[in-house]
Amino acid sequence: MVEMLEILDWNVGMSAFAAILLVAGAVLLGAIPQFIGEPRLPVEWIFPMIGVLVGGWIGSEALGALSTWGPEYQGLYVLPAIIGGVVLGAAVDVIVRYVTGGSFVHEPRPI
């Protein structure tokens, strides 16, 4: 049996390795919007990364019966985590781009 991760006496709902995989996926998915369009901040990827991390955890653990379908790895339900992470990460990225004045398209430049 896999031992579940506990932080401050709170059971996270997955193993430590599954939590590391969730963080790694959040970094990867959070960095993708940095290469789309024209972000205004050099570290703008941090905000979607946090959104992906929170959305992935909510999708995998916090939605009750909606979170317990698809393939499971040491307590991490993969498909709900990906869906939750992409949805919340995209929403955070749209908000950050709107607030900072960034764009999702490249502006044409004169030759």
- The radius of gyration computed from the alpha-carbon positions, rounded to a whole number of angstroms, is 16 Å
Mean pLDDT equals 83
Count the E strands.
4
Unreliable runs: none
Strands of the largest sheet, in order across it?
Answer: 1-2
Strand content: 5-15%
Topology as H/E string?
EEHHEEH
Structural class: mainly alpha
User: How many domains?
Assistant: 1
Report on this model:
The protein is mainly alpha-helical and 111 residues long. It has one domain (22-100). Helix content is 50%, strand content 7%. The chain has 3 helices and 4 strands. It has a two-stranded antiparallel ribbon with strand order 1-2. Helix 1 (16-31) crosses helix 2 (46-62), helix 1 packs parallel to helix 3 and helix 2 runs antiparallel to helix 3. The longest helix is centred in the last third of the chain and has 23 residues, at 78-100. The N and C termini lie far apart (63 Å).
Write the layout of secondary structure elements.
Layout: E1 6-7, E2 10-11, H1 16-31, H2 46-62, E3 72-73, E4 76-77, H3 78-100
Antiparallel strand pairs: 1-2, 3-4
Helix pairs in contact: 1-2, 1-3, 2-3
In brief:
This protein is mainly alpha-helical. It has three helices and four strands, in the order ββααββα. A two-stranded antiparallel ribbon has the order 1-2. Strands 3-4 form a two-stranded antiparallel ribbon.
Salient structural properties:
4 strands, mainly alpha, 111 residues, two-stranded antiparallel ribbon
